[in-house]
Amino acid sequence: MRDNPEQIILPHKVKVKEVGESSILIEDEELKERRRKRITFIGQLLIGILVFVLWELLAKWKIIDSYYWSSPTIIWETGLIAFTEGTLWSDLLYTSGATILGFLLGTFFGSLLGLSFWWSNFYSRIAEPYLIAFNAIPKLALAPVLVILFGIGFSSKVVLAFMMTVIVTAIAAHSGVKSVDKDLEKMLFSLGAKKYHIFAKVVIPSAMPWIVSSLKINIALALAGTIVGEFISSRQGIGRMILYAGQIMNINLVWVGVVVLSILSVFMYVGTVWLEKRLLRGRRIRE
Fold first, then answer.
1. What's the N-to-C CA distance of the chain in angstroms?
2. How far is 75 from 181, CA to CA, in rounded Å?
3. Is residue 162 packed enough to be buried (19+ CB in 10 Å), middle (13-18) or exposed (0-12)?
4. Which of 9, 79, 186, 234 lies most in the core, judged by the most C-beta atoms within 10 Å?
5. With left for phi above 0 and alpha for psi between -120 and 50, is residue 136 left, alpha or beta?
């Protein structure tokens, strides 16, 4: 019998290995992780419920002015009317579609731009200052120009979301490229590896965590770009709905738009977390 028996981990809730007359019980780490996630989710849900209950009570007891701050029940009733009799559903699809499309395009082309710096140090040195300078420009200030160029329709909102995300992704990918192990590159070249082999097997996997880390920021920036575009000029969208509600002094409808955008941003954040796990799954397995 070994002094330190090896523990075998099996995909069960409890792992058991018989060693002579004794047995070693090992709790599944995946089970622990699921329990932690469940507790975290319950805690987050309870905090959200507490906020809405407190908001409702403060409005009911006249501690806050319900004309300006509304209340969850009034927002719910107004939202149902906007959903069944108004254009809330089509506005939601319009805003979310422009945001997601701009986010995907910006992330994709930004990644290509940042990764392209690895191929040539000369090109990287020339292009990097312009990348930094363009990142310093407030893209939202260009929104009126982009709306004029691309019209007041869907395209201008996608372009704004794209502009908000492409440079952030490019800078993240460029940082990942600069973090690649130079000694590993030299060793692979000495062993006869081609440049595109190193790019595919070393550079992209090394830069992937940097690119993925920008996703959560990008989705928020893409949503902000879309909403600003809708504020400037649009026929549809949650931003247009909020602007219209403000013009006719329908504060409850404004709050409906704000709450819907908050819920939409949460779902988009959860989507980016899911995407992050899928993109990094292979890397975690290799590690």
1. 32
2. 54
3. buried
4. 234
5. alpha
Distance CA 165, CA 110 (A): 8
Q: What secondary structure letter does DSSP report for 200? A: I
Amino acid occupying residue 208 = M
From CA 27, how far away is CA 70, in angstroms rounded? 49
Question: In angstroms, rounded to a whole number, what is the distance separating the alpha carbons of residues 194 and 118?
Answer: 14
Which residue is associated with the tokens 């310093």? 136
CA distance 30 to 14: 11
> At residue 21, what is the residue type?
E
Q: Bridge partners of 17?
A: 24
Q: Where are the alpha helices (DSSP H) in the chain?
A: 29-60, 66-69, 72-84, 88-116, 121-136, 143-150, 154-178, 182-190, 195-198, 204-213, 215-232, 238-247, 251-286
CA distance 98 to 260: 16
Residue 7 backbone dihedrals phi, psi, to 5 degrees: -95, 125
Q: How many CA atoms lie within 13 A of 84 on its CB side?
A: 6
Q: Which amino acid is at 234?
A: S
Q: Which residue ranges of the chain lie beneath pLDDT 70?
A: 1-28, 282-287
- Of 176, 152, 114, which Cα lies nearest the Cα of 236? 152
For residue 117, the one-letter residue type is F
